[in-house]
Amino acid sequence: MESTPAILLRKRKFSDTSLIVSWCTESLGCIQTVAKGARRAKSPFAGRLDLFFEAEIQIARSRKSDLHTLTEVVLKNPFGGIRKNYLSTQTAAYFVELIEICTERDHREPELFALLHRAFSYLDENMPNLRAVTHFETELARIAGVHDPKILKNDPAFALGNLFGKLPISRTPLLDYTFLPFQSQSLDCVQPPRPMKLTNSTGLARRLVLLSTSISEQRTESSPGSTAGSTSTGSPPKNRQSRPESMSAASTPESKSATITCVVLNFLMSQSFRKSRSRATA
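and the corresponding structure tokens:
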């Protein structure tokens, strides 16, 4: 029997009465245990096995596989503040996925447990922000030995992706659709985005495309020479001077709005290309 502080990372069904529970422990590393009878109503594990729970666990090691037997759980800190906010829960889930990708089972690494415990303690009392995510990735890359903030200036997430071959899929929606549109310049608080702000190139481009599309639809519906009018009379309108197609197409509001949209999109694409090029050279 071995006992150690642990944080519950993941749980899934093993049988009709049992669960497989993944832990990040202080003295045993990341391990998997089977909680026999945990799904029963009168189980001794009832109310003690939930995501992000910190507990003191006791296990019986298996000699044949890496699936050990969970014998006792003493709840220490449920980190209830993480479940009160969806953004906090999403951020904690991303931390768990990153830990699972970057660690091996049954490999002792006390710094990983300490890092995850600090991260959950922060999310339990504070709203998550981009700085917290970046700090967690930097510390994890430092523990893995692929990043030194005093020497290297590269992105720690990029270094982790190169080392382990992938990053969690949840990272992109977490950063692009949750943090970046709402981050202030100091990254200390969450503020609603201002309309038509040039810092969000994707949102500006989407609004311009929608604006040009709505303008073209309104002009088409309100045009005097619509197909409905011509079919009702059965003859083309009289006393109308014909103009060259090039002149009429160049002077329509639809073409003007489309031209403006293309110019702005080209400008935004060039700016984003320059930023990515400068980051790559740096």
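(Above: one complete record from the training split.) Residues 201-219+252-282 form one domain.
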